[in-house]
């Protein structure tokens, strides 16, 4: 399953080596490589996050571990359980069964595995906060790809139009930090706060914009409206 799912995130290249498994009973090593063919479309350029928790174990850990060290995914959440062995049930007699490990995974890069250590997340957080952590990381990544005031502001307004007010405020705050002497950055931040109903912070930022540009008629108008 790791080979099948994992293959979708790479080009048609069987040289992608996930891990190998040493089978003690057969005294053989099996390599897990990407498939040359998969049904459906591949998504090799897609930014990939894998969410994990302290309850993530076995094959799910293997998937996260391999993708972490292949540098193909960002792991987010809690350190995983740490169960790397492969076990089967064996009949002892009519009264007893034994669950006995018989194979061990060996990562192609670390030459080790996650047994007893778990998979350490790249972005550590509580499991229930993982989705928000991914969202914030992506927002920061996109915002950091812009370096000029106008582009960052345009991104903020795109989010504002989509009614993603929290994200828009984060972007406008970044713009204010990068360009603290720009009246326009404070004006935009004031508008974002106004859309969330936070009149106090909206007025504060419109006033700051007006200090930097006394001719900002929009800021004057907004302050007047918000103070009614």
Detail the topology: elements first, then pairings.
Blueprint: H1 2-7, E1 17-23, E2 28-33, E3 49-52, H2 59-69, E4 74-77, E5 86-91, E6 97-107, E7 123-124, H3 130-144, H4 149-161, H5 165-178, H6 183-195, H7 199-212, H8 217-226
Question: How would you describe the overall organization of this protein?
Answer:
This protein has about 230 residues and is α/β, with parallel strands linked by helices. It folds into two domains: about 120 residues, 2-enoyl-CoA Hydratase, Chain A, domain 1 (Alpha-Beta Complex), CATH 3.90.226; about 80 residues, Serine Threonine Protein Phosphatase 5, Tetratricopeptide repeat (Alpha Horseshoe), CATH 1.25.40.10. The protein contains eight helices and seven strands. Strands 2-1-6-5 form a four-stranded antiparallel beta sheet. Strands 3-4-7 form a three-stranded parallel beta sheet, sandwiched between helices. Strand 1 and strand 2 form a beta hairpin. Helix 5 packs antiparallel against helix 6 and helix 7 runs antiparallel to helix 8. The model has no long low-confidence stretch (mean pLDDT about 90).
């Amino acid at each position: 399953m790791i080979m099948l799912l994992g293959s979708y995130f790479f080009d048609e290249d069987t040289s992608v080596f996930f891990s190998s498994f040493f089978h003690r009973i057969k005294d053989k090593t099996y390599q897990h490589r990407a498939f040359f063919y998969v049904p459906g479309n591949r998504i090799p350029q897609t930014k990939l996050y894998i969410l994990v928790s302290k309850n993530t174990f076995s094959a799910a850990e293997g998937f996260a571990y391999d993708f972490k060290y292949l540098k193909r995914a960002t792991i987010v959440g809690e350190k995983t359980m740490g169960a790397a062995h492969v076990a089967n049930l064996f009949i002892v007699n009519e009264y007893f069964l034994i669950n006995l490990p018989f194979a061990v995974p060996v990562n192609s890069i670390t030459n080790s595995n996650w047994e007893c250590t778990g998979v350490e997340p790249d972005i550590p957080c509580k499991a229930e906060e993982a989705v928000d952590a991914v969202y914030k990381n992506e927002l920061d990544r996109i915002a950091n790809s812009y370096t000029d005031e106008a582009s960052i502001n345009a991104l903020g307004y795109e989010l504002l139009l989509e009614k993603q007010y929290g994200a828009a405020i984060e972007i406008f705050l970044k713009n204010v930090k990068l360009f603290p002497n720009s009246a326009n950055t404070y004006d935009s931040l004031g508008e974002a706060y106004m859309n969330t109903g936070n009149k106090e912070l909206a007025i504060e930022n419109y006033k700051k914009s007006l200090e930097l540009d006394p001719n900002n008629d929009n800021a004057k108008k907004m302050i007047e409206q918000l103070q009614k």
